[in-house]
Every structure is written in structure tokens, then in C-alpha cells.
Design a protein that fits this description.
Elements lengths: L9 H8 L6 H13 L11 H29 L4 E5 L3 E4 L2 H8 L2 H11 L3 H5 L5 E3 L3 H15 L4 E6 L7 E5 L2 E5 L12 E12 L2 E4 L7 E4 L2 E13 L6 E10 L6 H5 L3 H14 L14 H24 L7 H4 E6 L5 H13 L4 H11 E4 L10 E3 H7 L1 H21 L4 H7 L2 E2 L5 E3 H7 L3 E4 L2 H9 L3 H7 L4 E3 L6 H7 L2 H11 L21 H26 L8 E6 L8 H16 L3 H6 L3 E6 L7 H18 L8 E6 L4 H7 L5 E4 L11 H7 L3 E5 L2 H10 L5 E3 L6 H11 L5 H11 L10 H5 L10 H20 L1 H13 L6 H13 L9
Parallel strand pairs: 1-4, 1-12, 4-11, 12-13, 13-17, 17-18, 19-20, 19-22, 20-21, 22-23, 23-24
Antiparallel strand pairs: 2-3, 5-6, 7-10, 8-9, 10-11, 14-16, 15-16
Helix pairs in contact: 2-3, 2-5, 7-34, 10-12, 12-13, 12-15, 14-15, 23-25, 23-30
Length: about 850
């Protein structure tokens, strides 16, 4: 690195330290300059994609200045930093978010207009950055947004997948996956940093070090290289700009010139191709672990580059190792980056020459771990032989961590062999498996769940042995939240201006609990009318989106009933579509007059199924088959429409969520760790139909249980009901039976095709208690309908709920982490 002070050019310093002028003329000039030079466009061949690129690159230049300024500032005050390590960041689009953050949306809109384009169209040219599956990845994106907006010294670390979450097409009712080639277009939101790259080893063997008495050397390894790409995270209403540093595998040095010269052209690139694979594609599994070798390599590439980078930055502070955990906090977003624990321990011992205990004390003061699920199929386990082959040194370290841990347990609970077997990081199966959640717990100072009920459940069930060993204080709750910037201000500007009016200014965007001011307007007739009109507007916008994406006409006068999330048995989209069939039958049996008196409904589904998840894909097919019948039934008309919107993603969510009257969060109690879209829906004035699960519980506490439609068995009852279903199941009630009969009649196509779905919604196959909750679910639907008929009562609930969501800003979540886990302070950058 050149030493700046030696040859500082004052003009250069001046240029980067000054904020660019914010007027429209300057902005227009910057766009035109980019178009004509960087993008080689003329006024004759510029299209709206080009207008997007010009404007996006222009605003990115503003962000990059602030990103560097923020980083320098935190260096200068030697701030303790937090690193949010996550294999997923579901960012979505950035352009609109950046304009709003910098307060330049009007100026950019006018410039775009002068060029001859409409801002809405230009915004729609951007492709989502879909480097995540669902809630976990979106949470990470909201968290880095909050870090930036609240002026915390914190960065995200992740992987730059060349192909993100697959694109979903629906063909003949079936999900078909297409690759997400998001980097085919220029990406204004990343900045390549070829000067920041690290070597990462795989395979080989270990040998006792000759020079380092505690250490080992890692020999005969294959070396890959990870290169940084920085993704700026705009802070709203602050100069601070955060960062997500994403690693990409660099391959050029692996080109084999000898093989090339001897004519073996494909052999010459074989190692390059293998390395390239590492950051090629995001695994499309949500709440599911497959144990694949390539995934293990991805995780390690990520972990190793990140830890090396964190250490390099720490070293520039000039502080002693004893200060490491006062300068660095690392949060593990689930177990996917848990190898970081072994990696830091390895570097401290093998490269820095520390003794085990000194290193381990640094490690365990640095890491904290967030668990996001209790589903057994999601728990990461790595086969020990595979670990030994790919990461021989780490396997040894994990064995030693386990040995010392088990010795500690043995001292506390002598002769309890069952406990030792249960709690061991190494599971004695064949082959042996390393349980990554256990490694994460042992290597962390705090472990948290993501909603109160979930944090309680993990202490009582999957981690109860660890509570015995460590005591309860290591296990805490941090309830999830969502970013009000994106999920209210950006996706619903119409509602945002009402909130701004109620609050008096836009300070609620960064201090969301101020939205409680809405409550004072709940009896204001004019305000109520406008509140309702905003919802209508958003419903009309969604109706247009549905028309464009599915070709289906829906009436915006209907009740919009929405369930959008990954397709899973535990989330029970199946129960929803079964209830739709029930409703359809009921409408069919009514006189036309009576049908007219019913509340018309549009039932919206969207979500992706993991490519290998057979039942989830079949649920999509059933939804589409039902939609086909219902939507084309002349008797039914507008009284019921069923829509499956393809390719659910962040930018689709921004259109869908503000339009809901009621949204469904109906997981079997105890299975959904938190859920975060539930929060977004209520913030946008939608009501909730849900089970007593995840964050629904705390939302109910905040808004009041009279505001919410809850049903179903409780988490603590689930085991008994499951046992009953398995061994003494009673037949499904007549309502559910009639639904099965309709499916079996062939109305929705080959009835045999859907047999597996019938099997898993009653009797011994009913793991998620669909048949148990079905009756109370139907009753809850009736209650929704009754209330919707009373417009006054509905609007009152809608306003009160939205007014009481202050707790669910991700700013509050981040404050909780900062105070209780990371011990870091916010500081507004001064540059
Ligand atoms: N979650 Cl383990 C995911 O989206 N993917 C995963 O692989 C795991 C969890 C979700 C979880 O299902 C939701 O209940 C949470 O709200 C979300 O993580 C964020 O905590």
C-alpha cells in the first residue's frame, strides 16, 4: 500500500472530500457524461435501460465517496466494528433506495424526465440482487441497512454468486427453474477490489510445525484466491454509507501453461473451472441442508477470506491481540459461517504462534451466533471424512474444541455418558458428523433466537443441554425487524406521506416508533378516508401487476388475501389452498343472489420451492390447477379469484405487500422461527391471519389481540397432537373430507397426481397438523369476512395496527444486538 502522506495531491484530496453539488443540472450532466463516455451512447440510440445505467452509475459515484469517508472515519476513531457474516444477502434493487437515502429522488426524476423517460420505468429496468433464499437473507439485507442508517461501524460479509436465486417460471402449472444471470448486465452496485484478495487452501495434509511449538503446517494444499467486491449500503438521512463485502473466486493463476503448451487445452483450464464453480451459484435451499461438498467449499472460501480480511484491518489499528475482541465483533448468521470459529483459532495458533487457551479466549469473546430454525432437516452437519479430506487442519481443531468442551461437561456432570453423547460436536453416526450448531454454540459468547417464542423453544428443546452446561445467560432473544426505509417509505410512498403528515416530518423513517402518532388520527374522518384510498391505490397497482404477470383480471374491490413466502410444508400453503377449494364449493352451492352477498376475494400466492422439494412443487401445481378451474368458472366471477404470481422476489414483494387486506402467516405453531413479512404487511396497513407462532406472538402483544385473527393449536400442544395423528388419528372433519372428495373427483386434473398432498394433510402423514387446525382456520376466515363487511371497524384496526409496529423496525433489532451482544456504539461520521 502506498503511503498517502508521501505524495498527497491536494486537488485529489479536495475533490474526494467535497460533497458533489446536489442540483438537477449537475445530476443531468453526470448522467449524460456517463452515457456518452462509459456507455458509448448517443441521443439516437439511448434506451430506458441506458437511462437507468447512467443514473445508477451517477448515484453510485456519490455513494462510493461516502463509503470511503465512513470507513476512514471509523478507522480514525478506532471504533470497534461488527461484521455480519452471512452466506446470503437478499438485497433486491438499490437504485430507488439510494435516491431516497441521499434525498435526491426529485432531482434524479427531473433529470430522467429531461432525458425523455419516466422514473417508474427506469426503476423497473434494475434487476434484483437475489443472493439469498428468503427470510434469512432478507434479514441480513435489512440489518446492514439499519447498521448504516443508525451510524454503526459495521459491515456485511458474503459471497458474490454469479447466479443468484433461480428465476421461477410457471409452465402448465408447474414450477420451472431458470438461471438468474444477473451479472449479464453491468452492475452499478458493486465495486471490484482486485487489490483486496486472499489465498484460501483446500485439501492436503497437516504436519507438526518445526518452528512453532503449538502450531501445525498445512501442506500439499490446493490454493484458491478470493477477491473482494464492495457493495455500498446507502444510509438514509446520514452521511454514513455501509458496505457488504462479497467474495468471488479468482481463477486466472490456476491456468496451467505446461499443459497448454503440450496441447492439453481443456486440462490447462481444469483447475480454473473447478475454482470458478465455488462462487458460481447460490444453493436454493431454504430451511434445508443437503450436505454437499461444493457447499462446504463455498462456506470455507467465504469464512477464510473474511477472517483474513478482518485480521488485516485489525492489524492496521496497531493494537495488541489482547484487544482483538474489543475491536471486533462477529455475528454468525446461522451456522453457515460457523467454520469461522475454527478458522480464527487456526490462524491464531498456526500463523500467529499463540497457545490454545489464549487463542480460544479471543475466539469465544469475538463470535456470537444466531439460530433461525428448529427444523431438524435444516441443521447443518458435515460428514467427518469429507471435512478431513477438504479441511484437514480444521477437523483437527474441531476435534480439540470438542475434547476440551466434553472434558468441561464431564467435570460438571460426571459419569453422564448420555449427556456427553448428546452434546458432543461430533455425532457418533456412520460416518461421523460434525454438528455445526454445536460448534457455533461452543465457540460463541452469545446465542440468540429471532423471536421470543423461538428463543424460548431453542432453550427448552434443541439446545437445552447447553443451557445446563453454560447457564441461561448465554442464550438471549433478539426479535427480528425489517427496514422501514424499504418496507414502508420506498414501497409505499403514498402511505409514507400520510405517516409524515401524522408525525409532522419524515423522522419516523429512522425512528420508526414515532409512527405511533398515527393513533391520534384514528377518528379523523378525512384521514381515515385517505388511509383507505391509499390501500385502494396499492390494490389497483397490484391488480395491474397481476394482469401483466399472469394475465388474470382481478377486481380491486375484493378482499385481497395474500400468502407470499417460500413454499414449505411447515408454512402450510397447502392448508390455504385446501380452504380455497372449500370456499369454492360453498360458493358453487349458493344461489346467485346469495353469492352476491358474500365478500368477494382475491387469494394471492407467490413463492419458490427448492428445486429438489417434490411436495412443495406439487403444492404449486395444485394451486395453479385450482386457480384454473376457479378463475374460469362463470358462476363464480369476481366472488373468488386465485392467483399464483410467478418469480416471487424482493421487488415483487414491494408491489404485493402494500396491497394486502389480510395476509396469512399460518405455520404450525413452533415451526416458524420468526417470519418477517408479517411485520411488513402490518406496517402497510394489512391485518394478519395467523397462528400463535414466531413474531406473530409479539405483533399480537403490540397491537392487541383484538386486532388480529389467530387460530390453531399452540406450540406446546404440537407434540401430543403429532403423536395422536401418527397413532390414533381420527378421520378428517366433513369440511376437509369434502375438499379431498373434490380433488379426487378429478375437477383439478388427474386426481392421483395430488394423492401425496392428501396423504400429508390428514392421518399419520399429517406432520404439520393441517387436519387438526383446519376447522379453526375456517372459523378464522369467517371472522375476517365479517369484519371486512364493516368498513369502519376494518379501517380502525388497520390504522391502530400500523401505529403500533414501532418495535419491529430492524433499527431496534440492531440496537439490541449492539447493546446486548456486540458492545458497539453508533457514531455519525464526521467527514
Ligand atoms: N430462515 Cl434456517 C430462512 O429464511 N432460511 C433458513 O435456511 C433458515 C431460516 C428464516 C426463518 O424461517 C424465518 O422464520 C425467520 O424470520 C428468518 O429466517 C429470519 O430470521
Amino acid at each position: 500500500q502506498p503511503k498517502h502522506s508521501d505524495h498527497l495531491n491536494s486537488e485529489f484530496v479536495d475533490y474526494v472530500s467535497k460533497e458533489l453539488p446536489r442540483d438537477e443540472k449537475t445530476i443531468l450532466t453526470s448522467i449524460i457524461t456517463l452515457l456518452s463516455s462509459t456507455f458509448f451512447k448517443t441521443p439516437h440510440n439511448t434506451t430506458s435501460v441506458d437511462a437507468y445505467n447512467g443514473a445508477a452509475f451517477s448515484i453510485r459515484n456519490r455513494l462510493l465517496r461516502r463509503l470511503d469517508g465512513t470507513d476512514q472515519f471509523f478507522n480514525s476513531i478506532k471504533a470497534k466494528r461488527v461484521y455480519y457474516m452471512s452466506l446470503e444477502f437478499l438485497i433486491g434493487r438499490t437504485f430507488d433506495n439510494a435516491m431516497l437515502a441521499l434525498g435526491l429522488k426529485n432531482e434524479y426524476s427531473n433529470a430522467i424526465k429531461t432525458l425523455g423517460y419516466k422514473m417508474e420505468d427506469v426503476i423497473d429496468e434494475e434487476r434484483d440482487a437475489a443472493l439469498g433464499n428468503g427470510g434469512l437473507g432478507r434479514l441480513a439485507a435489512c440489518f446492514v441497512d439499519s447498521l448504516a442508517c443508525s451510524n454503526y461501524p459495521g459491515w456485511g460479509y458474503g459471497l458474490r454468486y454469479k447466479y443468484g436465486m433461480f428465476q421461477q417460471q410457471i409452465i402448465n402449472g408447474y414450477q420451472v427453474e431458470a438461471p438468474d444471470c444477473w451479472l449479464d448486465n453491468p452492475n452499478p452496485w458493486e465495486f471490484p477490489r482486485p487489490e483486496i484478495s486472499y489465498k484460501v487452501k483446500f485439501y492436503g495434509n497437516v504436519a507438526k510445525s518445526a518452528s512453532n511449538p503449538h502450531g501445525y503446517t498445512w501442506e500439499n494444499a490446493v490454493e484458491y484466491e478470493a477477491m473482494a467486491f464492495d457493495v455500498p449500503v446507502p444510509g438514509y438521512g446520514t452521511k454514513n454509507v455501509g458496505n457488504i463485502r462479497l467474495w468471488s473466486c479468482k481463477t486466472n493463476h490456476l491456468f496451467d501453461l505446461n499443459r497448454f503448451n503440450s496441447g492439453d487445452y481443456s486440462g490447462a483450464t481444469a483447475n480454473m473451472v473447478a475454482a470458478d464453480m465455488l462462487t458460481n451459484v447460490l444453493y436454493p435451499n431454504d430451511n434445508h441442508n443437503n450436505g454437499k461438498e461444493l457447499r462446504l467449499k463455498q462456506e470455507y472460501l467465504f469464512v477464510s477470506a473474511t477472517i483474513q480480511d478482518v485480521i488485516a484491518r485489525f492489524k492496521t489499528s496497531g493494537k495488541a491481540w489482547s484487544e482483538f475482541s474489543h475491536m471486533v465483533a462477529i455475528q454468525l448468521n446461522d451456522t453457515h459461517p460457523a467454520l469461522g470459529i475454527a478458522e480464527l483459532q487456526r490462524i491464531l495458533i498456526d500463523d500467529e504462534g499463540m497457545e490454545w487457551d489464549q487463542a480460544w479466549s479471543i475466539v469465544t469473546k469475538t463470535f456470537a451466533f444466531t439460530n433461525h430454525t428448529i427444523l431438524p432437516e435444516a441443521m447443518e452437519k458435515w460428514s467427518v471424512p469429507m471435512l478431513g479430506k477438504i479441511l484437514p487442519r480444521h477437523l483437527g481443531i474441531i476435534y480439540d474444541i470438542n475434547l476440551f468442551f466434553l472434558q468441561h461437561v464431564e467435570k460438571l456432570y460426571p459419569n453422564d455418558r448420555d449427556l456427553l453423547a448428546r452434546i458432543s460436536i461430533i455425532e457418533e453416526s456412520s460416518p461421523q458428523q460434525a454438528r455445526m450448531a454445536y460448534l457455533a454454540i461452543v465457540g460463541s459468547h452469545h446465542v440468540n433466537g429471532v423471536a421470543q417464542i423461538h428463543s424460548d423453544i431453542i432453550k427448552d428443546t434443541i439446545f437445552s443441554d447447553f443451557v445446563k452446561v453454560y447457564g441461561p445467560d448465554k442464550f438471549v432473544n433478539v426479535t427480528n425487524g425489517v427496514a422501514p426505509r424499504r418496507w414502508v417509505n420506498q414501497c409505499n410512498p403514498e402511505l409514507a406521506s400520510l405517516i409524515t403528515e401524522a408525525v409532522g416530518d419524515d423522522s419516523w423513517v429512522n425512528h420508526y416508533s414515532k409512527s405511533s402518532k398515527l393513533e391520534e388520527f384514528v377518528d379523523d374522518e378525512d384521514f381515515r378516508r385517505r388511509w383507505w384510498e391509499v390501500k385502494q391505490t396499492k390494490k389497483e397497482q397490484l391488480a395491474r401487476y397481476i394482469k401483466n404477470t399472469c394475465g388474470i383480471e382481478v377486481s380491486s374491490n375484493a378482499l385481497f388475501d395474500i400468502q407470499v413466502k417460500r413454499i414449505h410444508e411447515y408454512k402450510r400453503q397447502l392448508m390455504n389452498i385446501l380452504s380455497v377449494i372449500y370456499r369454492y364449493n360453498k360458493l358453487k352451492n349458493m344461489s346467485p343472489q346469495m353469492r352476491k352477498e358474500q365478500v368477494p376475494r382475491v387469494v394471492v400466492f407467490a413463492g419458490k420451492a427448492a428445486s429438489g422439494y417434490y411436495i412443495a412443487k406439487l403444492i404449486i401445481k395444485l394451486i395453479n390447477s385450482v386457480a384454473d378451474v376457479v378463475n374460469n368458472d362463470k358462476d363464480i366471477g369476481d366472488s373468488l379469484k386465485v392467483v399464483f404470481i410467478p418469480d416471487y422476489c424482493v421487488s415483487a414483494a414491494e408491489v404485493i405487500i402494500p396491497a394486502s387486506d389480510i395476509s396469512q402467516h399460518i405455520s404450525t405453531a413452533g415451526t416458524e422461527a420468526s417470519g418477517t413479512s408479517n411485520m411488513k404487511f402490518v406496517m402497510n396497513g394489512g391485518l394478519i391471519l395467523g397462528t400463535v407462532d414466531g413474531a406473530n406472538v409479539e405483533i399480537t402483544e403490540e397491537v392487541g389481540d383484538e386486532q388480529i385473527f389467530m387460530f390453531g393449536v399452540l406450540a406446546h400442544e404440537v407434540d401430543d397432537f403429532r403423536y395422536n395423528q401418527r397413532y390414533h388419528a381420527t378421520p378428517p372433519d366433513s369440511a376437509l373430507q369434502s375438499v379431498f372428495d373434490t380433488i379426487r373427483s378429478g375437477l383439478f386434473g388427474n386426481p392421483n397426481e395430488f394423492n401425496p398432498l392428501i396423504e400429508c394433510s390428514h392421518g399419520a402423514g399429517d406432520n404439520y397438523l393441517v387436519s387438526v387446525d383446519f376447522p379453526s382456520y375456517l372459523m378464522a376466515h369467517d371472522a375476517v369476512e365479517e369484519l371486512y363487511k364493516d368498513n369502519d371497524a376494518w379501517v380502525t384496526k388497520s390504522i391502530l395496527c400500523a401505529a403500533r409496529m414501532g418495535k419491529f423496525s430492524s433499527d431496534r433489532s440492531i440496537d439490541d444486538y449492539a447493546e446486548n451482544i456486540w458492545n458497539i456504539e453508533p457514531t455519525a461520521a464526521d467527514f
